[in-house]
Amino acid sequence: MKKALINMDSGELVETPVMNSITIDSVVFGFEKGSLEVLLVKHAEGISKGKWGLPGGWIKQEEGIDEAAHRLLRELTGLDQIYLEQLKAFGDPNRFPNGRVITIGYYALVKREDYRIKAGFTASEAKWYKVREIPDLIYDHNEILEYSLQNLRNRVRQAPIGFTLLPEKFTLLQLMQLYEEILGVEMDKPNFRRKILRMKLLVDLNEKQKDVSHRAAKLYKFDNDIYQKLTRKGFNFEF
Amino acid sequence: MKKALINMDSGELVETPVMNSITIDSVVFGFEKGSLEVLLVKHAEGISKGKWGLPGGWIKQEEGIDEAAHRLLRELTGLDQIYLEQLKAFGDPNRFPNGRVITIGYYALVKREDYRIKAGFTASEAKWYKVREIPDLIYDHNEILEYSLQNLRNRVRQAPIGFTLLPEKFTLLQLMQLYEEILGVEMDKPNFRRKILRMKLLVDLNEKQKDVSHRAAKLYKFDNDIYQKLTRKGFNFEF
DNA sequence: CCAAAAGTGTTCGTGATACACCCATGT
DNA sequence: ACATGGGTGTATCACGAACACTTTTGG
Description:
Chain A has 239 residues and is an alpha+beta fold. Helices cover 29% and strands 28% of the residues of chain A. Chain A folds into two domains: 16-158, Nucleoside Triphosphate Pyrophosphohydrolase; 166-232, Winged helix-like DNA-binding domain superfamily/Winged helix DNA-binding domain (Arc Repressor Mutant, subunit A, Orthogonal Bundle). Chain A is built from six helices and eleven strands. The termini of chain A are far apart. The model of chain A is unreliable at 1-5 (pLDDT under 50). Chain A binds a DNA duplex (27 and 27 nucleotides) through residues 171-173, 188-191, 193-195, 198, 212-218. Chains A, B: Pfam families: NUDIX (PF00293), WHD_NrtR (PF21906).
């Protein structure tokens, strides 16, 4: 049962058969210079021309929704293997102007260093915005973004997912600043060190920072195998 | 744009225009005699005749999804004002045998005492099952149930929602047993008392149990206004 | 009397918090 | 010398865990 479908926003013809009342929209988080950022895309055509929104798209008939979310992000960023979690479905009957469309929200955490290398879109089409400087977005995308921020704040305290936003090798202060930024709190450096090191989740790389105008800090990395092992022993990440 | 639609499971004609690729399925939790239970319904017709599944249905064109979930539960149980939260969308391309249908999972917490009074279905069509004795369900409903259990275990530790499963007036031991059952742990009575009372969330009703063959316990109730007030002051429910 | 659950008291250890202080490195 | 961040030490306090013990009520 092949269908010819029209993208309701851009007017563009959608080739492959997709589910025409459900979309996916993803909130892609990045962390750069102490700020939490979100990747937004500019709508080139259709009613909301020029306005920014979350990256998203349609679900193909034969693919799962997680699969679709991954595919859409790969098409946009060139990145595979992205940390991606479903938020929930948003289904206000009036959220979408051109018909009844329910969207399934996702949020992703990426390392900005990776994104820079393999960007699939040009700068004019996609741009990082600091979460404190998000403009008016199309449809209900501001609501989805707000919800995902709440969700991120909860999740980051209960699972070691914050590392996904940092480079492979990071210092303890970088990690702390990440938590401070996401949770919107101030933390005590000495106490943070002890707390995170006590968990024994981090691998000391026996390397130090270079080219810094102060005492170089040790570099660490997060080891997921260790985390899995600890979890099986009953360890519970709590922050 | 009115459509004539067929309920893909039962073959029944669906009168009002609904979204035909999305359903809602709800996990309704109850708590009775120390056991956590789930409300299941028997499928009377269609391929899965005789098999049990989660209560669910279609979303109407002009209603929101939370609204639809509430309506469906009202139709089933006669209950309004139910505690209801969205879980997430389930969208495996093969989850539904007769076509591509994505379902949005919800979970609800009800007081069994209320349910008993206003039941809308007969016993042969709907039945409470202990969570440890769930049979094979239709489609991916076992998966949805399992996921909602995980979710309930998380949520119950971070928000005061457990009370929703208990009668208006309850004893501290009942509350403790609720937590023990949901979380699957054993707790220390004295310590539990102090912990929950220290939060000052409960109102001492100055009433006691009656007709019990041991020292009667004080009755308490949960006061949501107090909780809101404390929350605004920075209080955070943690268990 | 006993059984069963209600309810209080006390001890111990761990971890969160606050903060003083020294170390290393570039300008 | 001093600014900047790295890193250690320590006192205090609250809370969770464990458990001994007293109280109330029905049978």
